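Minutes, structural biology subgroup

Action item carried over from last meeting: produce the structure token record for ABC transporter permease (Bradyrhizobium septentrionale). EB confirmed the sequence was re-checked against the source entry. Recorded below for completeness.
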Amino acid sequence: MSDAVVPHRPEDHSHAPAGWFRRALDSDIFYSFRRSRLTMVAAVITLLFFLLALFASWLAVQNPFDPAQLQLINSRIAPLWTADGQSPFLLGTDEQGRDVLSAILYGLRISLAVGVAGVVFAGALGIALGLVAGYFGGAVDSVIMRIADVQLTFPAILIALLVNGVAKSLLGNRLDEMSTLGVLIIAIGLSFWVQYARTVRGSVMVEKNRDYVAAAQLIGLPAPTIMLRHVLPNTMGPILVIATINLALAIITEATLSFLGAGMPDTMPSLGTLIRIGNNYLFAGEWWIVAFPGIALAGLILSINLVGDWLRDALNPKLR
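Output recorded by EB:
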């Protein structure tokens, strides 16, 4: 009997994404997520805030950053459900005739942009310094960690105020709205890099003694490749937790700077700027100008913190 030649059939990878998705659904983290109703609600609210900021230009009845769309005759109109309310101003208007809901949507976009970009900048700087300090050790480690220790003695808001003040004193009148946005991102990033650096340094000092690092060094891989490809992925759990919690802190820091007058200007307000503007009219009876931006900021921070707390517990094997 002759041996039949069986033709080679190419492997079918069409179900690879489905398999990956099924493994994600069966993971311990997703199981923990499904068990926590509070976390699910917080995640939905957080996602809703991001979607509102993303589609602000389609949802808002006016562009609060465009003076041509503002009319002073519409200033200080009460919310729509009150006796003095007028359509289409659902949450009323402020002293410049801006629709409060539209201002919140656009201000939410500014606050989230500053928060996310600040966290990314802080994470990139802190992770890079933590990798270098933990991997090489010695004098480099001592210098980086002493700088981190000195910065930890000052509150983050003071560091942000210092960086923001130095930038404004150097640039002066050349600091427009977009430049102010960039300064805030840098100021917030320089305020929060220490947590990333210390966490990554501790993880790297443990991981660099593993066999896989020794094997990578033995075959001649350069140090940057070992740090980024092999060591860094094993430290991502704590980094994700820090990033989630720091996102809320970064948004609060930006709101504080704007409330103190050192953040975004009135022509391009964030949630903190809207609260500062509304605070001037609180005792005059126009409570809605400050109340609704404050509620939006509080809801955003609370939802992000709840997701961060769940993520910290889910990624900690001692708490499972």
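Discussion: The chain has one domain: 30-319.
Next step: EB to file the record with the rest of the batch.
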